[in-house]
Amino acid sequence: EEMGTAAAVLALVPLLCWAVVHASHVVYPELQSLEAKEVITELRTGYHFQPPKHWINDPNGPMYYKGLYHLFYQYNPKGAVWGNIIWAHSVSTDLIHWVALQPAIYPTKPFDVNGCWSGSATLLPNGVPVIMYTGIDPHKNQVQNVAYPANLSDPFLREWVKPEYNPIITPDHGINASAFRDPTTAWYGPDGHWRLVVGTKENMRGIAVLYRSRDFKKWVKARHSLHAGLTGMWECPDFFPVAVAGGSRHHQSGVDTAELHDRVVAEEVKYVLKVSLELTRYDYYTVGTYDHDKERYTPDPAFPDNDYGLRYDYGDFYASKSFFDPAKKRRVLWGWANESDTVTDDRHKGWAGIQAIPRKIFLSRSGRQLIQWPVEEVKSLRSKHVNVSNKAVKGGEYFEVTGFKSVQSDVETAFTIRNLDKAEKFDPAWRTDAQGLCKKFNSHVKGGVGPFGLWLLASDDLEERTAVFFRVFKTNDTNYVVLMCNDPTRSSYESQIYRPTFAGFVNVDIAKTKKIALRTLIDHSVVESFGAGGKTCILTRVYPRKAIGDDAHLFVFNNGESDIKVTNLHAWEMKTPTMNKLLEQ
């Protein structure tokens, strides 16, 4: 099963096929192995990670080894829908330019004969990287396996060996064998034991099952789970430390799980537990404390431990995985962005799925949330630059940002609000449904303070446009709530495309500053937005039919009564990096 280098047009006439749901993905058995013959590039991203063709989903086992960043990912080498899943493998020196290698892990043994699903990488104290992944055995049970590099002197880690003692963790009595997957990076405790977590469910109870081992071969289930919640299946769990402000290291610095055996380090960190909820298709997280002796994780009271809690991203961002980057002392986050067009579209274009731009992730100085920001290396792609400064935008007005090609760009905007007096009244019932609020008060609905922001991937007549905007509400005379939205409801003439509004609240004191910033990465069919310096992040997939290439425009708009000012807008065209050419090429 080899990764191809060309891609895609299958038959344009839709096939009549039946579909089933399997492992959180809709399965089209008759389409799984219909290989693409050529590729449609019109809406392919320019600087986001994706292979030359076919289906991808979860990022797996990211790590840094001997000067190279490694990213493995779930891949179908035979078609543009989910199926035939293997671990594809790419390497980079900067997280931006990528070279594709041959697949790292694919079904070869009874313990993974029906698929090699998601997992993580752990660097052992002797420097040996090890992969833990979920295999599907002949009985369709989900079991956990381990793989080691065949040649440690090869920085590309091109070959991996699966020991015959696999599987190392099996679903024992009381574990749902059809929902038992996605092992985390392991951590080494002060007691000399390795520990890791596997996601599962019991009815509506999502569970992070805890296992421990002395030798990384024999694993024993702990007497109780690391944590659990009544939110349905927990997929792709991630558990890692973050530095807190006031400690011996800067709060933006990453913390390696390998350091957790040091009790001094352990006292200067908080812990993040992230789970991907199968029922909602979002990644939720809490921040809390971890008791090494009792093997218990406890979220801090400020973090709702349910599906109304904080998310990494309030848009199309799922199955994320983080890793510690020792080269730059940071934690880097990867996340998968699925397509929201149709299966027929995916077959036609020959590809489906991208990875979001990798993000640096750290705990805010206040400790109230995580902050995410595109890794600094993405700036190396910036080229032609335009700037707008101190431009007032009255209610109902808009203007175009000209002088550059916005279809593949990076835009940073700082807004100032003249006054907040006209902010609309906020209903406390809205607090748990930002997305519903954005749908009700979308970018076309006039407001008091906002909506204001950007129309991007817009046609010259504005018939096609995607809106990224803020709207301010007031709870009383001195307190305000800021809503951030990605609104693609007018993003395409194509009627069959799924176009949900995505939204999240932004934790800023807008009354004090009257300022808010927005960074937006625009890349043909994806819009990644970072509000208030990365406090709220929203990724949206869009598929314009007219606003493509040189016909894609960028506007600043204000559809509120209160005037705003663009203090500064900096926009750069983005170059196209090397993206997954085979190493031999």
From TrEMBL:
Keywords: Disulfide bond, Glycoprotein, Glycosidase, Hydrolase, Signal. InterPro entries: ConA-like_dom_sf (IPR013320), Fructan_Metab_Enzymes (IPR050551), Glyco_hydro_32 (IPR001362), Glyco_hydro_32_AS (IPR018053), Glyco_hydro_32_C (IPR013189), Glyco_hydro_32_N (IPR013148), Glyco_hydro_beta-prop_sf (IPR023296). GO terms for biological process: carbohydrate metabolic process. Residues 377-573 form the Glycosyl hydrolase family 32 C-terminal domain. It catalyses: Hydrolysis of terminal, non-reducing (2->1)-linked beta-D-fructofuranose residues in fructans. SMART domains: Glyco_32. Belongs to the glycosyl hydrolase 32 family. Gene3D superfamilies: Exo-inulinase, domain 1, Glycosyl hydrolase domain, family 43. One of its GO terms (molecular function) is fructan beta-(2,1)-fructosidase activity. Its EC number is 3.2.1.153. It is an enzyme of class 3 (hydrolase). Pfam families: Glyco_hydro_32C, Glyco_hydro_32N. It comes from the Eukaryota. The keyword Manganese does not apply. Residues 48-374 form the Glycosyl hydrolase family 32 N-terminal domain. Residues 1-23 form the signal peptide. This is fructan beta-(2,1)-fructosidase.
